[in-house]
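Data deposition worksheet. Section B asks for the primary sequence of the deposited chain exactly as it was used as input, without tags or linkers unless they were present during the calculation. Section C holds the resulting structure in token form. Section D is free text for depositor observations; keep each observation to a single sentence. Incomplete worksheets are returned to the depositor.
Section A, Depositor: J.P.
Section B:
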Amino acid sequence: RRGGWQSQVAMDAENLAESLPAQNKLAKQGAWLFRWRSYLPLLLTAIILPSFCHIRYPFGSHTYDLAWEMFCFTVSLFGFGIRCYTAGHVPRGTSGRNTKKQVAEVLNTTGIYSVVRNPLYLGNFFMILGVTMFTRTIWVPVIYALAFWAYYGRIIAAEEAFLLSRFGKQFEEYRARVPAFVPNFALWRPNALPFSLRTVLKREYSSFFALVSAFTALEIIEDWVVEKRLAFDPVWVTIFFAGLVIYITLRTLKKKTRLLDVPGR
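Section C:
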């Protein structure tokens, strides 16, 4: 739904907001937040770090602690998997990382977009949820969920105002049929395009490394608080350096070669 559309009828999010009715307050706020939607995880540090003040290993065991961390990491990987599946099936000019303006070349209505309108944001939700669960408190994930809904709810309102202006009745019918955030698998329609692993590797390597880095950093902070010393868990060190190698390799391939390019993606 979002990407490299360069038609003259495209309006950036901020300009679109000015043209919306005055009562459409959510969309106007979302138009501004759209530019900064990648920074919600950074804002969460204000609630995550204080929660570490009294953190302890489950049952006083580092083994149980590692098991919980792997569970949290799995929740985040589930969200990352949603992003990968989405990116692997969409055509060029949709579902991009654009931040300066709203753009859309075509309207995605097949595959995962046939069961939920915002699969990338759904993936983001679970990716960050796993990180907040790392704190082993109930209030951090709850605050995160509320903040996510308030933050992305406004962004979605702005995006959908743009899509309505771009696709008109086609999007209006799509929005009436498909839920915004909770998938309805009964609506499933096959993907229009086959899955492209190269597209996923090209588009999602930075998200994966950011996730690995976040968990590694939290593990180091936790061990420092609990053990009163700087410690490096070999499991997380291995995961981090594996992620770093993957990041450097894929970034180099993307910037220096065309090996990850796929026609029409």
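Section D:
The chain has a mean pLDDT of 84.
Residues 197-227 form the longest helix (31 residues).
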